[in-house]
Amino acid sequence: MDQAEAELAAAKAETLSATEKAEVAEAELAKAGSPQADKITVGPVTIGGAIRANYILGSYPGGGSGPSRGGNGGNFALDTFRINMDLKYEQLVGKLEYRWYDGYNFLHTGWLGWDFDDGSQLQVGVNRVPFGPGPYGVSQSWFFDQHYYVGLSDDMDLGIKYITDIGNWSLDFAYYARSEWNGNGTSQDSTRYGYDAVVWDNAVAPNGDVTYGVLPNGYEERNQFNVRAIYSFEDTAVDTDLGVSLQYGQLKGRRTDDGHHWAASVHMTNSWNNWLLATQLTRYKYDIDSDNALSTDALFPMGAYDFAWPVATDAWLPAISLSYLYETNRIPWLDSVRPYVEYSSIIKEDNAFNDSQLVTLGAAWARGGWYIYTDLAFSDGNYFVGNETEDGTAEGYSNLFSPTGGVGDFGANGNDHWNYRFNINFGYYF
C-alpha cells in the first residue's frame, strides 16, 4: 500500500505523461497493494486478474426484467471474473483485459502502444476515451456517477490516442473509428462494458406501438474525436487540477437517418491532505432525426451489460464526489478505508421527462489483494437501483418512449420514484 501511494504521488509530480501514469498508480491502489509475487510473468508480459462477487438488498419487490447486473433483493452472486495482461518491452507497451459476467462476456481493453523518450505515449486499439477528470470520472464508488450511464465516463472505444504533457498541462488527443465490438451474450448489440449507441431489436414506436419490434434499428458510433486538457496548479494550499473535455462524433443509423453527437465538460479535482473533492459539469447532445416511426429525437437506444434502453438525447449533467483516504496503520487486518459521498443528475432538456438522480453513500475497504465496496445508493432514475413503483409493485419495461410510463431510467423516467439499493462488492485482485 505504501509503495502504491508513493508511486501515485511521484506520478502526479512528474511533468510528462502525468495523467496516464497517475491512472496506472491509482489502478495499483485499487488492487489494495496486491503483491507482485501473485502475478505471473512470462517474458515482457505480466498476467493478473480479479474475481468479484456481489450482494444486493433494496427496492426489489420481485418480477420484471432488466439489466443482469441490476440484480434483485437479497441476491448474492458472481459479479465479474477477469484476466489482465500488461506488456512492457523496452518502449513497446500494451494492455489486454477480458471479462466474464453471469451469462455474457466481452473484451474490455485491448491496445498496443509506444512510450516516447519525452514521456508521451501512443495507444492503438480498444482504449479508454479521454473525457472527464480521471479514468472513472469523479466517482470513487462501485456505481460510478451518471456520466457513465450516458457513455461519458470509463468508456472504451476502438481508435488511437496520444497522451503528452507540456509544462503544467496534461493533454490527450484521440480519434475513434467506432465503439468496441459486441461480445457474447443474448442482446442484439449491448454485450459491452462501456455505454454506447447500439442497434436493438426491442424497438417501440413513440406512440407505444410494439408492432415495429421485429426489425433491429438504432445507431452505431463512427468517427469520434476527443480532446482533453488539464492544468495542474502549483504552489497552492489545495492541489488543484482544472480541465476541459470535448467530444464530437457521427452516428450511423440503422433503419433510420444518420446523426451526430457532441459533449463538452469542465471538471476539477481538489486534494488536501487525504481529502479529495471532484466536480464536473457536462452538456451533451445526441442529435438524431425523428422522422422514422422507430425513433424519437428525444430518446435513443444505448446499451451495456447485455441490456439496451432509451437514454435522453439532450441534457446537462452535474456530478460531485467527496472522499477521504484513511490509512489504518494500527489495524492489522485493514490497510485503508475510503469513505465517500456522491451526487449526480441527468437534467433533461425535454420538459416532458423527469430528471435522473443518483446519490451514493459508501466506503471502499482495502486489505492485501482484497478490495471491498459497501454502498448505499438512492436513485430516482437509474435502473440499476431498485425496480419498485409508487404502489410497491415491480416496474415493467414497456412504453419505452412515454413520458408518463416506463421505468426509473436514463430516458423518460416516467415512474419518477426514489428507490434504494444496498450493495456489497467483494473483489480479490491477483
Account of the protein in words:
- The protein is mainly beta and 430 residues long.
- The chain has one domain: Porin.
- Helix content is 6%, strand content 51%.
- It has helices at 2-13, 18-30; strands at 40-42, 45-58, 75-89, 92-101, 104-115, 121-128, 156-166, 169-179, 196-197, 199-200, 217-233, 239-254, 259-272, 275-287, 299-304, 307-312, 314-324, 326-327, 336-348, 356-367, 370-380, 419-429.
- The strands form 2 sheets. The protein has a 16-stranded antiparallel beta barrel with strand order 2-3-4-5-6-7-8-11-12-13-14-17-19-20-21-22.
- A hairpin with a 5-residue loop joins strand 5 and strand 6 (121-128).
- Helix 1 runs antiparallel to helix 2.
- The longest helix is centred in the first third of the chain and has 13 residues, at 18-30.
- The protein is globular, with a radius of gyration of 21 Å.
- The model is unreliable at 1-37 and 203-214 (pLDDT under 50).
The number of helical elements comes to 2
CATH architecture: Beta Barrel
What CATH calls the topology is Porin
Spans of at least 5 consecutive residues with low confidence: 1-37, 203-214
| Total number of beta strands | 22
- Strand neighbour order, sheet with most strands: 2-3-4-5-6-7-8-11-12-13-14-17-19-20-21-22
How far apart, in Å, are the first and last alpha carbons? 14 Å
Q: Per DSSP, what share of the residues sits in E-state strands of 2 or more residues?
A: over 45%
Coiled coil: 1-28
Keywords: Coiled coil
Organism: Lamprobacter modestohalophilus
Protein name: Carbohydrate porin
